[in-house]
Each structure stands twice: as structure tokens, then as C-alpha cells.
Amino acid sequence: MSTANGTAHAFDFWVGEWDVFDAAGARVGRSSITGVLGTGALAEHWHGAGGFEGRSLNAYDGTRGHWHQTWLDSTGGVLMLDGGLVDGAMVLEGLAPGEDPSAMLLQRITWTREDAGVRQHWQSSADDGATWATVFDGHYRPRG
Q1: Does the CA dihedral 34-114-93-86 come out positive or negative?
Q2: From the CB of residue 140, how many other CB atoms can be counted at a distance below 10 Å?
Q3: Longest Cα separation, the chain
Q4: Terminal CA-to-CA distance of the chain, rounded, Å?
Q5: Pair type for strands 117-125 and 53-61
Q6: What residues are paired with 115 via a beta bridge?
Q7: Distance, CA of 58 to CA of 46 (rounded, Å)
Q8: Which of 27, 31, 44, 52 has the most neighbouring CB atoms within 10 Å?
Q9: Selection from 129, 137, 126 nearest residue 100 by Cα
Q10: Buried b vs exposed e over 1-39: b needs ≥16 C-beta within 10 Å?
């Protein structure tokens, strides 16, 4: 893993204890993002306001030259994303089944620094990225 150019720590801006709000300002959950092994890798533990939970591991893969996230949740959902920094934002993409499990949908999640924290914008596309629909638009604010 190469850290000479800071690539392995490019996602450090997401580290913290967060309350998460939707675009309308309603609290939808809380999230704890911690560093793993001092490598720049991150572990996420999401607690949704309705009892939904999820966890992800995020790491820079120096061999392949990009970031990877594996997400697992309390409904049995799994999402695997790859990507990296684009204009200062972390952008990860991957495929996941839609309502029809035989139809794979392109997923894109973008994390952007904001003055008050971090925005996580999750989008889905059924037409290979020609158009996008928002799945989740969360604003992470420091807890406490």
C-alpha cells in the first residue's frame, strides 16, 4: 500500500462520531467511522433511526490503485464499490441487484466535505449512468 502521496489516507475526512440527517434536516441515524490498523482503512458502523444497521470496511488497494468498500447490513444486503478521489470527493461505484434481482443497477456513492461535516450522496442508475436517482442524501454532523 503506497502512502507517499497520501492516497491511503484520502478518506480520513470521514472519520468521526456522527449524527446523520436527511436533506430535509430530520435525524435518520448515527454513524461511527474509525481508522483500522493505522493504514488509512476505515470501519463504519451505521445505526439507522428505525433499527436498521450496517457496517462497511473501506481501504485503499495500492496494488489495484483504487479505493474499495464492502458494505453489509442487517437485512442481508451486500454492496461492493470501487473508485477514488474526484475533485476532492470520494466517489465509489459498483453494481447491485434492483427490485428485480436479475437486473443489476449501477450504484454511486459520493462523500464530500462540508463546512459542518460530510455529505454522503447515494445514487442508482438503471441505464448505465445516463440518468441517476437519489437513494440517500445524508449529512453527517459531529455528534455532541
Answers
A1: negative
A2: 23
A3: 44
A4: 34
A5: unpaired
A6: none
A7: 14
A8: 31
A9: 126
A10: eeeeeebbbbbebbbbebbbbeeeeeebbbbebeeeeee
Q: How far apart are CA 34 and CA 16, in angstroms?
A: 7
Each residue of 66-120: pLDDT tens digit? 999 999 999 999 999 999 999 999 999 999 988 887 889 999 999 999 999 999 9
Radius of gyration for the alpha carbons in the chain, expressed in angstroms and rounded? 15
Q: Using an 8 Å Cβ cutoff, are 17 and 29 in contact? A: no
Residue 37 three-state SS: coil
Work out whether strand 27-36 and strand 16-21 pair parallel, antiparallel, or are unpaired: antiparallel
Per residue in 14-47, pLDDT (tens digit) is 999 999 999 999 999 999 999 999 999 999 999 9
Q: Quick one: CA dihedral 2, 140, 78, 128, positive or negative?
A: negative
Q: What is the pTM of this model?
A: 0.93
Specify the long-range contacts of residues 88-97, CB closer than 8 Å, at least 24 apart.
Answer: 88/112, 88/113, 89/113, 90/10, 90/11, 90/14, 92/67, 92/68, 96/124
Residue ranges of alpha helices (H) inside 13-107 are none
